[in-house]
Amino acid sequence: MWRHLLACALLLAPTQALAGAREKLAALAPAGLVLVMDEKGNELVAQNADKAFVPASVAKVVTAWLAMEILGSDYRFKTRFYLDRDRVLYIRGGGDPFLVSEELARLASALVAAVGKQPLSGIVLDASYYPSDIRIPGIEDTDEAYDALNSALAVNFNTIHAVRKGKTVGSAEEQTPITPLAISQFLERGGQGRGRISLTQSPTVGLQYAGELIAAFIERAGGSVKGKISTGAVPEGLEPVYVHRQSRPLSEILAGLLLGSNNYIANQVFLEIGAHRLGGPVSLKKSLQVANEMLGRHGLTESIRLEEGSGISRGNRFTARGLVQLLHLFEPYATLLRSGDGAQFKTGTFSGVSTLAGYADTSKHGRVRFVIALTSNDGAMRFRLLKAIQSEL
Q1: HSE-up of 151 (CA within 13 Å, CB side)?
Q2: In the chain, N or C terminus with fewer CB closer than 10 Å?
Q3: Among 311, 316, 336, which Cα is nearest to 257's?
Q4: DSSP label of 296
């Protein structure tokens, strides 16, 4: 008899612990969505888990998984340079999301070494890899710098970081030269003091700034540009004189993306997924097709619905069970996520939306996968719920 009683007690203990965890989570956020699953796929907590929710930037986990699976961890974005007999330099953008100033300095040194220091008679920018009318759902609703317009050829995330004092504008970064367009744009749209503006009003503005900044770095590297900067196509039959491979592998770009949550970077990566699989030019339609094919292989097309790759669109819709399954697929790449206090996670924040998803260590159930979604602006509550999951499980 005592053995039977002991066995019953052992069975009841974990059940009671789970009930206690559920009660605590329900008390903290009764309307919140919470799903916790252990490594064997057992649901430990499921509160409002059948409701679809807006993932916000948690959607970047899906983009990162697609990118690692389709492009690979060491994938490098490329920018190609061509020189004709008149020393006109043609630059064909390849959608590199990380053509930041430090990368441009490296690029310019290699380019000048390849073409020589004789003056260039002009620069022609070819951004045809991206359609000029490309738009990402949700981007039109914001002018935040991290939501800049996506482009085949953009520098510093298609933004300008400057300091304004009266009508004087200078660079806010020692490594970034100031250019005429940067000055005029910041005088028109920037406030006093230090700030960053996005180049969202026209694709040609961002492209012109890319050309001016590349020209400035060419001059820093010992070259010179005497002619004008214009847009156009690379002539047929002209071979590249230099192909710049991004110094950061995709895995490093994604780690920065999942930490900083830049929507521009996320959709540059997302657009590359479709073009890599189906051929250029990029299109949102191609990337969504590839994404849905990949999700469909795992039965996730109904539970993870994407409109774009950053989470900025409120048209994105996930279910908790779908995202928990995706987290299982993403687990080989979990080290890309932000980590701290025994958890690896990604946050998502919109007006009226706070989400959190990832992996957490618990004392009784080991490593678990979790999804938390709140229809509120209480970003701290999602972390209180995570702490409750860790302490009660």
Answers
A1: 30
A2: N
A3: 336
A4: H
Exposure pattern of 243-264 as b/e (b: 16+ CB <10 Å)?
ebebebbbbebbbbbbeebbbb
User: Which residues does the chain have with pLDDT short of 70?
Assistant: 1-17, 140-146, 201
Q: How many residues does the chain have?
A: 393
* Residues 214, 108 contacting (CB under 8 angstroms): yes
Q: Would you give the DSSP letter of residue 120?
A: B
Contact 120, 89 (CB under 8 A): yes
**Would you tell me how many other CB atoms lie within 10 Å of the CB of residue 54?**
20
Secondary structure element (H or E) that encloses residue 324, with its range:
helix 320-330
Q: Name the average pLDDT for the chain.
A: 93
- Asked if 67 and 254 touch (Cβ cutoff 8 Å), the reply is yes
Q: Is the model's pTM score more than 0.90?
A: yes
Residue 339 near residue 298, CB atoms below 8 Å: no
**Contact 288/274 with Cβ under 8 angstroms?**
yes
Q: Are 220 and 177 in contact (CB under 8 A)?
A: yes
What's the pLDDT tens digit per position in 108-160?
Answer: 999 999 999 999 999 999 999 999 888 899 876 555 666 778 999 999 999 99
Q: Are 225 and 215 in contact (CB under 8 A)?
A: yes
For residue 139, the model assigns a pLDDT of 78
Q: Which DSSP symbol is given to 377? A: S
Q: Are 371 and 357 in contact (CB under 8 A)?
A: yes
DSSP state of 322: H
Q: Which residue reads 């940067």 in tokens?
A: 182
Q: If you compute the radius of gyration of the chain from its CA atoms, what whole number of angstroms results? A: 25
73: left (phi over 0), alpha (psi -120 to 50) or beta: alpha
